[in-house]
User: Fold this.
Amino acid sequence: MRYWNALEATVTAAEAIEECHRHDIKACVRESDGALIEVETGDVIAAADDGGEFSGEAVIGFLGY
Assistant:
């Protein structure tokens, strides 16, 4: 996906976790609030929207793009 498209996209938990994995970051969904977090540090990668999906902008921002 192109950078500008990714900024506007929403992604599923599986897609976000896969993208993090490609960057050697282990991520999971926190049960208490549905946020996507980095397992090692507990840092929030992205908050879930009402549909349980995540902002592409938040995910790629966390990855340093």
Remarks:
- The helical segments are 3-8, 13-22, 56-62.
- The chain has a mean pLDDT of 94.
